[in-house]
Design a protein that fits this description.
heterodimer; A: about 160 residues; alpha+beta; Ubiquitin-like (UB roll); DNA polymerase, domain 1; 2 domains; 5-stranded mixed sheet; 6 helices; about 35% helix; globular; B: about 700 residues; Aldehyde Oxidoreductase, domain 4; 3 domains; 7-stranded mixed sheet; 19 helices; about 30% helix
């Protein structure tokens, strides 16, 4: 059995150890806020926090998550060490009207939270570099950048 | 009473929809059927309940373009009700939701607001008139003495009485439907034209929004389908021995598109599928390659096509002036929406229910009816949020798969495509080979323009090609060139290599605009004119296009010198009645442009929500930029060679240019915006590239040209 604590709840999962964490979260536990986009860590849709660090859950095995704390977008504003940052990001995302289709935004916010946790006042270049792993086909990059700066209290 | 009957029929549908995406939907539906609430349903788009809830049903698919908010704003404006207090739901597939202009339920072509603006205003105004009549009856006063103030109440100022819409909803339901209603004068709009926050955004920042990919039903299995890799191929036989021993795999069934593996989770289904041993008949396209496809097109260039536009005398014009000619070549493109294709189906109790992120409700309905043999009235298609669409999700292929598997197994089933499936089994933007020529007179004006488009026809694939064989979509961006040119000839040569083609953001125009706007730039340089002023000189009869061009040039500071190392280009287009011009500023980064800034001006007629229009211009521009810089699908041995985002690359955050927008204030009827800024991006960047390097790019993407 694999034991993973997701958003504060510990789940004993009868899954193959090599199953990507993404599918345990989505299909086994039933939390669908974390999205599937590529399966090969190329798009960032599936970003979650594993013991506070942003990881691509599509390319992180359940075995790697065994015994660890996972936070997903579904409850990231309420659980986990970055919950205050996530709250600020969500408010900023609404204020800047960032999402269009919205499908990538769970991953964008989880990635941005990890960025701000490490770098509370990131430069434009730092934002561009760190967020480059998260594809948005709606092209909301400019608003994502504005929202991250707003959440960081850097709004011009 | 007719209205009562219609209301009851409608309630059943909305009951199924309202709870259709939750685990307890069966129970909820039964509860609603057992105790049908009495509500005011003036039409299929509105429901006003006594507990003072207003529900607006959106007949169009929300794939990011903000249409659910926009259309709800339009109906709420005339209802005189604050849209932020309305509940917005997606309509089921049903006859009452077909588009009043094209008579199908689906979303595309940027026409939703264009087609529905007046229609929904009338529906909103009619409902308001019935609420006013109800208040007048209730208080025994003249309807003309009743007013609304945009807050969801009716007022009788002389007596100081008021009532919420909910309080008088049932009385309103008993009022006769007025034959005529007065619409608000646009200067009295309080919601249309405002930067209202989108209702769907809070649910899109905390994971609550339900996309097709997120639908879960009790006892549902997940399916992954192994399809023949070669277009036109088929499965001859398969051995599922290894598949059935994969943990989580439950069933394997053959369907029309391939072999479906069902498991208790998506990943196990895919692992089981990869363990299949499948023998294919690759069919007649087994040796087809992109090289061969371009060679076919090259030969077809010499063939006369079907005329799409013929004004003046093109041959005389070309014989009389300084002539220029060029051939442009464009690649296949895949859509690559962030949410891969998927659909969920369940056939039970004599009905078939489908949950899908679809742009084509009518198409989904027809496919489900055809597979199940059930009448359309027994098919329920519920539209979820779409994680991007771009035209791809107008195709019902994933719905067909889900319904076929549901039929074969009797189980609720969700088909989940991998990213590789999504890229390799798309309906692609066609390749295009374009021969374009023109003549300039001694004053530097274009006297003749001839343009031949060789590409595949989407409408032929759909069985909707007109008798004359002209696919108007294929020549969009070529035939509707809007410059003042006395002699114009455009024709279309239908090229069918066998690769499935489909609608992709600004179909036709997303390629042909690259050709026309690059070639206009070539002519400007040939005439030794500034590319902006050269366009201006040919737009004197097109005030809206001219204003948009001027707005972009002005905002970009076209008349001011650029910083060292920065170069600029300009291009424009018309799409669904709207106009767009883009100025691109680039730096040269080795063999690739580094796009630093895009200035986009648009005239989309009356703007319902400026913030949404700006978002769509930004979005469409980035979409076009990806195509310009990297977009290319290649065919080898009858199959697509690209796999995933590592070899079908997207513009990412670190490459995204600064985008500035200018919206022209307009009282014209509202026209399309979702696709508008895609076509001019590539030529604006390529024209900037020419300004920087003197090299004219006549094929895309840039990444290909950089290899040579």
């Amino acid at each position: 059995m694999i034991s993973i604590t997701i958003n504060g709840v510990t789940h004993e999962l009868d899954v193959a150890p090599e199953m990507p964490l993404l599918w345990a979260i989505r299909d086994v536990v039933g939390l669908t806020g974390t999205k599937f986009g590529c399966g090969v860590a190329e798009c960032g849709c599936c970003t979650v926090h594993l013991d506070g660090n942003a990881v691509r859950s599509c390319s992180t095995s359940c075995a790697q998550a065994h015994g660890k704390n996972v936070t997903t977008i579904d409850a990231a504003a309420h659980y986990g060490e970055h919950k205050t940052i996530v709250q600020k990001l969500q408010q900023a995302w609404i204020a800047e009207q960032v999402p269009q289709c919205g499908y990538c935004q769970s991953g964008q916010i989880m990635q941005a939270a990890a960025l701000l946790a490490k770098t509370p006042r990131p430069s434009d270049e730092q934002i561009r570099t760190v967020m480059a792993g998260n594809i948005c086909r709606c092209g909301a990059y400019q608003r994502i950048q504005a929202a991250i700066k707003r959440a960081a209290g850097m709004t011009a | 009473m007719a209205t009562m009957l219609k209301r009851e029929g409608f309630l059943k549908l909305t009951g199924a929809l309202g709870a259709g995406l939750t685990l307890g939907f069966t129970l909820d539906r039964k509860a609603e059927a057992a105790a049908p609430a009495a509500v005011f349903v003036p039409n299929a788009y509105l429901r006003i309940a006594p507990e003072n809830t207003v529900t607006i049903f959106c007949s169009k698919s929300e794939m990011g373009q903000g249409i659910a908010m926009g259309l709800s704003t339009v109906i709420a404006e005339e209802l005189d009700y604050p849209v932020e207090r309305a509940r917005i739901e997606f309509a089921v597939a049903a006859p009452e939701y077909v588009d009043p202009v094209n008579h199908t339920q689906g979303t595309g072509g940027s026409y939703s607001t264009d087609h529905l603006f007046d229609y929904l205003r009338k529906l909103g105004a009619t409902a308001r008139a019935m609420l006013v009549a109800a208040a007048a009856e209730k208080w025994g006063v003249a309807p003309s003495s009743i007013v609304t103030k945009g807050d969801g109440f009716v007022y009788h100022p002389p007596s100081g009485r008021s009532a919420s819409y909910g309080e008088i909803a049932l009385l309103a339901a008993a009022q006769p439907v007025p034959e005529r209603v007065t619409l608000k004068s646009p200067d009295r709009f309080t919601q249309i034209g405002k930067r209202l926050a989108r209702y769907d955004i809070p649910a899109k920042v905390d994971g609550r929004a339900v996309y097709g990919m997120d639908v879960r039903l009790p006892g549902m299995l997940y399916a992954s389908v192994q399809r023949p890799p070669v277009f036109g191929g088929r499965v001859v036989r398969y051995d599922a021995g290894k598949t059935l021993s994969v943990k989580g795999v439950k069933r394997v069934v053959a369907i029309s598109s391939g072999v479906a593996v069902l498991a208790d989770n998506s990943w196990s289904a895919a692992q089981g599928r990869y363990a299949l041993a499948v023998t294919y008949d690759d069919g007649p396209l087994a040796q087809l390659s992109s090289k061969e496809i371009y060679a076919q097109a090259e030969a077809l260039l010499k063939k006369p096509g079907i005329p799409a536009r013929n004004e003046g005398n093109i041959e005389a014009a070309l014989a009389g002036g300084r002539t220029y000619e060029a051939v442009y070549r464009g690649p296949y493109l895949a859509h690559a929406a962030m949410e891969p294709m998927n659909a969920t189906a369940w056939i039970h109790d004599g009905i078939c229910e489908v949950w899908a992120p679809t742009q084509g409700q009518t198409a989904a309905l027809k496919v489900a009816a055809s597979v199940t043999g059930l009448p359309e009235s027994r098919i329920k298609v519920y539209t979820t949020f779409l994680g991007g669409g771009f035209g791809r999700k107008s195709e019902p292929d994933a719905v067909r798969e889900a319904v076929e598997i549901a039929k074969a197994t009797g189980l609720p089933v969700k088909v989940v495509w991998t990213r590789e499936d999504d890229i390799q089994h798309d309906f692609y933007r066609s390749t295009s080979t374009n021969a374009i020529s023109a003549a300039l007179d001694s004053s530097g004006k274009i006297v003749g323009l001839k343009h031949r488009v060789v590409s595949a026809s989407i409408f032929r694939r759909l069985g909707r090609l007109p008798a004359d064989g002209l696919d108007n979509g294929s020549v969009n961006g070529a035939a509707n060139v809007f410059y003042d040119i006395p002699n114009i000839f455009v024709d279309f040569v239908d090229h069918e290599p066998g690769i499935p083609v489909g609608f992709l953001r600004a179909p036709g125009a997303n390629w042909n605009t690259f050709v026309t706007e690059s070639f206009i730039d070539e002519l400007a340089h040939a005439a030794a004119r500034d590319p902006y002023l050269f366009r201006r000189a040919h737009l004197q009869k097109q005030p809206r296009a001219l204003a948009v061009l001027d707005a972009a040039a002005h905002k970009a500071g076209w008349d001011r010198p650029l910083p060292t190392g920065i170069h600029r280009g300009i291009a424009m287009c018309v799409w669904d009645g709207s106009f767009c011009a883009i100025v691109a500023e680039i730096a040269v980064n080795g063999k690739m442009p580094d796009v630093r800034r895009l200035v986009i001006a648009s005239d989309t007629g009356l703007v319902v929500n400026p913030d949404t229009v700006e978002a769509q211009l930004q979005s469409a521009a980035i979409y076009g930029l990806t195509a310009a810089l990297r977009g290319k699908i290649t065919i080898e041995r009858g199959r697509v060679t690209q796999n995933n985002f590592y070899d079908y690359a997207m513009v990412r955050h670190n490459e995204a240019p600064k985008i500035e927008t200018v919206l022209i204030a307009s009282r014209e009827r509202p026209t399309g915006v979702g696709e508008l800024a895609t076509p001019p991006v590539a030529p604006a960047v390529a024209n900037a590239w020419f300004a920087a390097t003197g090299k004219r790019l006549r094929s895309l993407p840039f990444s290909d040209a950089a290899l040579t």
